[in-house]
């Protein structure tokens, strides 16, 4: 058997398990057709409710984009409404009036079911599905809360290409992995633009969810939003996004979820949790950065108290630390014109674990 699963037994076991999960998720989300869309585009951001404030720095850079055709920014939280999220919404709407922000929360039932499941990809699916369902425009851009866009005309150029090219999905690169090959021409979900009118007329929200199946003779584990791209007649396109034009650590929130769920989290070599205190610093919360700098400076051995958990840094490497430093310096130049002293001190504290 070719693809992700070389054993037929393993393939069927995972497929049945995923099918049972889909039965639980199916009644949680529905949407209607989008028959009379407004002009322009919407931006959908899936946001971890625990780190809503971390989004402030992202939105400030978003404000520097050419947003002349933006309808609104839809922020979808992976939790129910709360007093803290309401305060964030009030502050964000006041500071970012130009973005016409709409905040979407999980219902009590959705939150109860998803907390029992306890798999971050389920929250990701629901957030994007709810955001697409809330769009009043045909065109929707999916924007990561830990992706920072540095070039001011980046979204405008992608939107124009999407309108003129006629694609249903446009990504920054082709997806590879989990049995999917580059030649399949399925778009990576990060910073994707899509045709919400087409998607909502042909697919159910559940069709966006992860799916284990056979595709082109291979066993595959389709990630979020891959299955709708695999159907005959769907048009996909890639418009590359050079790394110098944005900063995107990736897996920041998923790594935080692992940190909170384990007594001691053995961080991978590509550990990006160090970005969270810095992103909060960009949102005017400098105390978190200072606290974690002190925690790193005072730690003995390879385990450090970090973001309310314990993190084992035995796998952390100089190569990845250098990459972190490059991303932070690039973002600092875009935000402040230079690397500020508090940020330098924090990076030095992180770097001691490499030595």
Task: Characterise this structure.
There is one protein chain. The chain is an alpha/beta fold. It contains 13 helices and 14 strands. A hairpin with a 2-residue loop joins strand 8 and strand 9. Helix 2 crosses helix 10 (about 275-280), helix 10 (about 275-280) packs antiparallel against helix 11 (about 285-300) and helix 11 (about 285-300) runs parallel beside helix 13. The relative contact order is 0.13.
The helix count comes to 13
Using only C-alpha atoms, the radius of gyration works out to 21 Å
Read across the widest sheet, the strand sequence of neighbours is 3-2-1-4-7-6-10
- Mean pLDDT score: 95
Query: Which regions are unreliable across 5 or more consecutive residues at pLDDT < 50?
Result: none
What's the overall geometry?
A: globular
Oligomer: single chain
Beta-strand percentage?
A: 15-25%
In terms of structural class, how would the helical and strand content be classed? alpha/beta
Share in helix: 40-55%
Order of helices and strands: HEHEHEHHEEHEEHEEHEEHEHHEEHH
Number of DSSP E strands: 14
Biggest sheet, in brief? Answer: 7 strands, mixed
Distance between the termini: 45 Å
């Amino acid at each position: 058997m070719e693809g992700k699963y070389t054993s037929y037994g393993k393939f069927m076991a995972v497929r049945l398990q995923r099918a049972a999960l889909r039965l639980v998720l199916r009644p949680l989300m529905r949407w209607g057709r989008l028959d009379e869309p407004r002009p322009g585009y919407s931006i959908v951001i899936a946001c971890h409710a625990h780190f809503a404030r971390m989004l402030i720095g992202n939105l400030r850079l978003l404000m520097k984009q050419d947003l002349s055709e933006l309808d609104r920014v839809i922020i979808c939280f992976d939790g129910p409404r709360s007093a803290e999220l309401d305060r964030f919404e009030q502050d964000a709407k006041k500071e970012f009036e130009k973005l016409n922000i709409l905040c979407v929360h999980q219902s009590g039932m959705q939150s109860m079911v998803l907390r029992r499941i306890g798999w971050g990809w389920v929250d990701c699916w629901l957030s994007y599905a709810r955001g697409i369902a809330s769009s009043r425009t045909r065109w929707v851009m999916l924007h990561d809360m830990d992706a920072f866009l540095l070039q001011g005309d980046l979204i405008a150029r992608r939107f124009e290409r999407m309108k003129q090219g006629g694609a249903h999905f446009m990504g920054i690169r082709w997806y590879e992995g989990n049995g999917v090959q580059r030649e399949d021409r399925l778009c990576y979900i990060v910073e994707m633009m899509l045709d919400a009118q087409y998607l909502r007329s042909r697919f159910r929200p559940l069709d966006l969810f992860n799916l284990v199946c056979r595709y082109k003779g291979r066993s595959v584990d389709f990630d979020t939003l891959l299955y709708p791209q695999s159907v005959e007649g769907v048009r996909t396109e890639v418009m590359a996004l050079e790394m110098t034009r944005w900063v995107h650590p990736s897996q920041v929130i998923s790594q935080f979820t692992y940190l909170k769920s384990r007594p001691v989290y053995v961080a991978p070599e590509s550990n990006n949790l160090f970005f969270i205190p810095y992103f909060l610093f960009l949102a005017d919360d400098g105390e978190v950065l200072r606290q974690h700098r002190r925690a790193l400076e005072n730690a003995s051995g390879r385990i450090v108290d970090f973001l309310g958990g314990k993190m084992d840094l035995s796998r952390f490497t100089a190569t990845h630390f250098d990459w972190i430093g490059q991303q932070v310096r690039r973002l600092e130049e875009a935000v402040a014109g230079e690397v500020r002293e508090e940020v330098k001190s924090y990076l030095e504290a992180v770097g001691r674990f490499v030595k």
